[in-house]
Design a protein that fits this description.
- The protein contains 14 helices and 22 strands.
- Helix content is 24%, strand content 21%.
- The longest helix has 20 residues.
């Protein structure tokens, strides 16, 4: 990402003649192209099953390797890295000559572990030599050695799926994001904004003219910076947006200069985005502006599955829990944001991964197989996920990972009967559920499907997971709130009567067959939402009161205080 904390950049009137349109793909991508299967450490008390295997190739962190922040690095991780460096320096000074005991080492929480076998990646204090030592592979699988060596050649800025982190790593990651969010809430960040991403409902005739107004304002000669504006590709031929007419109107502002050069520059500065571009080159955009409602903000989160530029949302929808700015003041709001900086809130997102059950050797039916002794056995999801496993067993493999801002729902789909699901937390089986479905919500999504299903309202700053059943066939299943350091797994048992369906923020919908499950964990890529200055604490309470009528009733009549006469 090109945005960073620093001085505001200004350009002269001729700067538009030097705009360069770099349309090459970056080496950094959000696509998971290189799938790797690795081994898992059986000694880990929290991440120990073969079902937790890699769906993407990510590099280990090697001590002594230092690199500058990549242009494609997420805003959050740029700040986190700087915060860690400062904390590491202060910690080193405080602990010189002091001895301390780390309980995490005793229970194996500080080990980097993979599905089955010894930890494939080194500790943070390890060296490249440790990776090739014999001691690191004594209990590993045959494919572990080649996996480790191949990962040494990968980009060191790549990270892991949060579902594969150890308990301590997941806790440290979540705490770091929370601490950073708390600090960002009291300061302004001044970004060097050049490329602006406009997002709206391309089919809404009321919003398209407003999008055109914002694009024209950004591209105007009156701006100190020659912004590059990206609008949705479908607007290129939209009559309401009228891209050729917009360029012609803007060209009239350059009548006192080289008209031909000005026209060419304007054509280069008005560009069009598509979903592939957001997925492949998210760092291209410095700032995101949404025009719509909460659904438009959710779409922005869906487009930017990893790197999320700061998102400023204008309220042009029905509810507006995520849209904090009035469109009527867009010129003043944007001018202030670009000139004086913005306050950013980091909203927790979840990482959801679909895990597919793999057919066993000598499997006879959907849930029955013959073992090595010739005994007929039935497959058991609980046994496969938390029971004792075989060294050569590969029970599941990943089939798609999604970053979500609202909720992950596992429900019965079009099936006329209830769904049967099993819920796991870390290495523990929580419960079996007979219901229409289960909703796992972020604090941001607590006012959405979670609320409709009877779940709790939750302030978006809370680091929690909200688990709510949907029409459970029991009187005792109450909504529960779990910490964001847990890795949840929601699966369909092998003996279920029907399959289930998983949906991610109401967009992607995937069928789950018997034995399939979904992992849910806190994402390493929170959603950077721009907030109005000085209103962060009270804004959410006012929203639920105004939008949902929370605790609204007519006041009692008061005829004056009368002391009770005994």
């Amino acid at each position: 990402m090109n945005g960073f904390a620093g001085a505001h950049e200004s350009h002269d009137a001729n700067a538009d003649q030097h705009s360069q349109y770099d349309d090459h793909y970056s080496s950094t991508s959000d696509d998971d192209n290189d799938a790797v299967e690795v081994t898992f450490d059986p000694a880990s008390p929290y991440r120990r099953k073969s079902s937790l295997i890699y769906s993407e190739a990510n590099a280990p962190k090697i001590a002594g390797y230092k690199s500058k922040a990549a242009a494609s690095q997420c805003l959050v991780h740029q700040f986190l890295e700087g915060y860690r460096n400062e904390k590491r320096k202060s910690t080193d000074l405080e602990h010189v000559g002091q001895m301390h005991e780390d309980v995490a080492d005793e229970v194996g929480l500080d080990h980097f572990v993979e599905p089955k076998g010894t930890a494939a990646s080194p500790q943070l204090n390890g060296t490249s030599r440790d990776l090739d030592s014999d001691a690191s592979t004594e209990t590993g699988q045959p494919d572990q050695e080649s996996w480790r060596k191949s990962r040494l050649n990968l980009d060191h800025n790549e990270g892991l799926n949060s579902r594969l982190l150890t308990k301590k790593q997941l806790t440290d990651m979540a705490w770091g994001v929370r601490e950073l969010s708390r600090r960002l809430g009291s300061i302004r960040l001044k970004f060097k904004v050049r490329s602006v991403f406009l997002l709206t409902k391309a089919y809404d005739r009321e919003l398209i003219p407003k999008t055109r107004l914002v694009a024209k304002w950004l591209l105007s000669k009156a701006r100190d910076v020659r912004y590059i504006v990206y609008v949705e590709e479908s607007l290129k031929s939209n009559d309401e947006f009228d891209a050729p007419g917009l360029l012609q109107e803007l060209g009239q502002e350059y009548c006192d200069s080289d008209v031909h050069a000005a026209k060419k520059s304007l054509e280069n500065r008005l560009r069009f985005w598509n979903e592939k571009m957001c997925r492949k080159r998210p760092h291209t955009f410095d700032f995101v502006i949404t025009l719509g409602g909460d659904g438009t903000v959710l779409y922005a989160s869906w487009l930017f599955q990893r790197i999320v530029p700061p998102v400023l949302s204008f309220s042009l929808g029905s509810l507006g829990f995520l849209t904090k700015f009035e469109f009527s003041e867009y010129e003043e709001i944007l001018s202030t944001a670009f000139r004086e900086g913005v306050t950013v809130s980091l909203r927790l997102r979840f990482e959801g991964t679909v895990m597919r059950s793999q057919k066993k050797t000598n499997q006879l039916t959907q849930n029955e197989y013959v073992d090595e002794q010739g005994t007929h056995r039935k497959r058991d999801l609980i046994e496969e996920l938390i029971g004792e496993e075989q060294d050569d067993e590969r029970t599941h493999k990943p089939d798609g990972t999604y970053e979500i801002l609202n909720e992950i729902v596992v429900d019965r789909g079009p099936n006329p009967t209830m769904s049967s699901t099993e819920i796991f937390g870390d290495d523990e089986h929580f419960t079996s559920v007979l219901a229409d479905g289960v909703c796992v919500s972020t604090p941001t999504g607590s006012t959405a499907y979670n609320l409709a299903a009877g779940g709790s309202l939750c302030h978006p700053d809370n680091p929690v997971m909200l688990v709510t059943s949907i029409c459970a066939h029991t009187l005792s299943f109450r909504p529960i709130i779990l910490p964001d350091t847990i890795v949840l797994r929601i699966g369909v048992p092998y003996d279920a009567r029907t399959g289930s369906w998983a949906s991610f923020d109401g967009r992607e919908r995937v069928e789950l067959g018997p034995g399939d499950y979904v992992t849910v964990s806190a994402s390493r890529f929170p959603f950077a939402s721009v907030q109005p200055q000085g209103r962060r604490g009270e804004d959410w309470v006012k929203s639920i009161s105004a939008k949902l009528g929370w605790n609204t009733r007519q006041r009692q009549k008061n005829d004056g205080y009368n002391q009770w006469n005994k």
